[in-house]
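W.,

You were right to be curious about this one. When I first looked at the sequence I had no strong expectations either way, so I just let the prediction run and decided to look at it fresh. Below is the sequence, 57 residues in total, followed by the output.
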Amino acid sequence: MASSPYRVAVFVLYQLSIVLGIALLPVALAAEQLGFRLPLGRLVDRLGTAYERAAPA
């Protein structure tokens, strides 16, 4: 079982990654036009999974 401070830290990082993804959406769309992909979706997915694992049973 994960400790409460760890859970809070992972939750905060998860929320920040969502905000970062939303804020960088125009940049990501422009990069996509140039043939580059930003790994923001993977970041959000990984932090979401980490938060779910840290949640109490």
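Here's what jumped out at me. The chain has a mean pLDDT of 84. And, maybe more interesting for your project: The chain has one domain: 4-54.

Coffee later to discuss?

I.
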